[in-house]
């Protein structure tokens, strides 16, 4: 009785080179032809549009859960007000951390973002004075263990800290989580979480995997994720998501 599938993108649906295979595209279309909704949930923002065709999906969750959409219509918004994130980032910056706020697809950072991610051109180097608007997400580059303790020691009550395997600290609104965006999309489609299959590979997929009816870890997942899921599929570079769906849903 599966009614919806949600998948992470990087190291999950996408290959390591950030491409999606024609085989995977064909499987997604076949799954949707059976009346099953197909969505993605990612830490990415607008850069996602450069990687996948949005018309393949019934909905999507961006910025680790800060925003969720159906048919390109915003249905869930949990962003971080400027009066909360500006003093927080200024404090971290004063203590030597490389940090940034992403606002409407613009990265406001105290470092050259392009040196870390060469595909990002839309950034402004700033000390955060005069930055306006709510941030979709905040992030920092962790270069030493003490920086984690520093972030936690001054983290505002409204925010939470998450990590990815590439030493990236992501700071979000407490209600801005992948699972919240996924469940809001499911609610709009009148689908219970028990009828959702979730695919993921990293720490920021944990709650999503734990709170859907069926959870599948990638073969390339970190061990902590493999330990909590119902199934483990092939690695992302071998079209693990599509293979699992073909064998278990279409088969």
From TrEMBL:
Q: What organism is this sequence from?
A: Irregularibacter muris
Task: Give a GO molecular function annotation for the protein.
Answer: magnesium ion binding
Quote the cellular component terms of the Gene Ontology held in the record. cytosol
Please give one Pfam family short name. Hydrolase_3
Sorted UniProt keywords: Hydrolase
The keyword Nucleotide-binding is annotated on this UniProt entry? no
Say if the entry is tagged with keyword Hydrolase.
yes
Which protein, by its recorded name, is this? HAD family hydrolase
